[in-house]
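Batch job 17 of 40 flagged for manual review because the log was empty.
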Amino acid sequence: MSQDPFSVDQRLFIALEKKSQPFTPPGISRILFNQGEEPKGLYTLKSGEVALTMYSSTGNLVMCHRASAGAVLGLPAVIASKPYSLNAIVSDSSEVGFVTRCDFEQILQSDPSLYLSVLGILAAEVRAARKSLADC
């Protein structure tokens, strides 16, 4: 599967972009979020790349993926109200937007047809995770 599992259809991305605020990670770390952190919201990747990693409880790398422009990051955590399951580190030249959970919920309430796009992203992320685990 060559499609980026974190990318979304154009309609959803545009809806998220309308509500997003420019986001610059604090300091020089370029970390959007860490595995285990409570979700603050979603991140939209307007340009550049994000490295996504997952580590086991014993510290072994179990998943590594690169997301590119058009990706939405943090969706499973926001939907489930559970901690982020990945680490996300953005490249220096990337442009990132941030959408609060409240704004995300308002977007879906105003256009329920976008739920299908959200389900598509979740399914693609599950497939990518299974493939990564199978490749270990």
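Reviewer: the log was empty due to a logging misconfiguration, but the result itself is present. Residues 10-131 form a domain with the Jelly Rolls fold (CATH 2.60.120.10). Unflagging and moving on to job 18.
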